[in-house]
Amino acid sequence: MKTLLLILGKETKEFAKGRYNQGLFEIAVEILKDQYKLLTTVVEDGYNILEEIGKFKEADGVIFQYPVYWFMMPSTLKRYIDDVYAYGEFFGHSNGSYGSGGLMNGKKFMLSTTWNAPADVFNNPNSFFEGRSLEEVLLPMRKSHEFCGFEELPHFACYNVIKNPQFEADRDRYIHHLEMVFLDPAHDLGVEVAEPLSAPCSKAH
């Protein structure tokens, strides 16, 4: 049985309680718990640095669940990465080209993010991101993990979650995404499932 580390990077504030990200985190746990050994971290609840390093070493893949604040991760998640991603554990000196000293080789990562931005501002040359895709806007987080040797899995995002939240539809889409990435044997982290997975919803987007 392979191991996944699920990291929840929400922040509970008066304006934004973090319920959307908490809900998506819980969905991932429910969908994946029978086919993977799951390790979890809720960053705002606190963490032990050495224990977190151990979780990353044990995990075959990592899912980050977090809201995008000012086009970046929340400050608590940034602090977590600063604390945990230690030299000699996640990366080291390399005689090769810049960025080739990662020590997490063979491990995968996926970003599941929530945005106040609507979906139609991505991949649109006449909109705010000037034609950039979701992956391009997430470049710093993606490159940070490439620097450490991780390989990317298909990412997931929910849009317009403050002005026009659609949690049920996003829930269905996320279940479908998790099934595709983690439960389909055709994918690298997919596992053999004896019978077709019965998702706790009637449709997938």
Keywords:
205 residues; alpha/beta
How large is the count of helical segments?
6
State Rg: 17 Å
- Binned, the helix content reads 25-40%
Mean pLDDT rating: 90
Distance between the termini: 28 Å
User: Which residue ranges are poorly predicted, with pLDDT under 50 across at least 5 consecutive positions?
Assistant: 192-205
The total of beta strands comes to 6
Summary?
The protein is built from six helices and six strands; from the N terminus they run βαβαβαβααββα. The protein is an alpha/beta fold.
Task: Provide a descriptive summary of the structure in words.
- The structure is a single chain.
- With 205 residues, the chain is of the alpha/beta class.
- Strands 1, 2, 3, 4, 5 and 6 form a six-stranded parallel β-sheet that branches.
- Helix 3 links the parallel strand 3 and strand 4.
- The chain is globular.
SSE arrangement:
Blueprint: E1 3-8, H1 19-32, E2 37-42, H2 49-58, E3 61-67, H3 75-84, E4 108-114, H4 134-137, H5 139-147, E5 151-152, E6 156-158, H6 167-183
Parallel strand pairs: 1-2, 1-3, 3-4, 4-5, 4-6
